[in-house]
Amino acid sequence: METQSTPYRILVIANEAVDGHMLHDALAAHNGEARPAEVLIVCPALNSRLRFWVSDVDRARKAAELRLRECLPGLDGDGMQANGSVGDSDPIQAIEDGLRLFAADEIVLVTHTIEEAHWVEHGLVERARRQFGHPIFQVIVSDSRLHAAA
């Protein structure tokens, strides 16, 4: 049985960079501010289709590392503990890999707007809902602000 002291475990897949303080506030508001949480943030090494198919990942990994460095600071604190890593270029595979290492209660997808979506993001929320038996919460980054998706 889960208690208030049992941390709620959140796997965040960050396809877009977001300020860690803003992400902290969005997660706290979504899950209840008084509840402790453990967060694993995974930044997929998003790549162009051509670079994906020829396995040229260096530039994509560096971009993911920069995204992670932007997301992590400010995420820790107020009952929330956060760690992070760079993940697979396919967000679905990044989720699967993350779940192997981190028994998450919920998956949060930080994505671009529909107009700015990366090619691997098309249909991502629906695919993740079909494939994983976890609640999925989508946060869209637009104009450096976060918006919860319906």
Would you kindly provide a written description of the structure presented here, covering whatever features stand out?
The protein is built from five helices and six strands. The two termini are 29 Å apart. The longest helix has 14 residues, at 58-71. The chain is an alpha/beta fold. Residues 49-54 have low confidence and may be disordered. The protein is 33% helix and 27% strand. The protein has helices at 20-31, 49-53, 58-71, 91-101, 124-131, and strands at 8-14, 37-44, 80-87, 106-111, 136-142, 145-148. The protein has a six-stranded mixed sheet with strand order 3-2-1-4-5-6, sandwiched between helices.
Q: What is the structure about, briefly put?
A:
33% of the residues lie in helices and 27% in strands. By secondary structure, it is α/β, with parallel strands linked by helices. The relative contact order is 0.23.
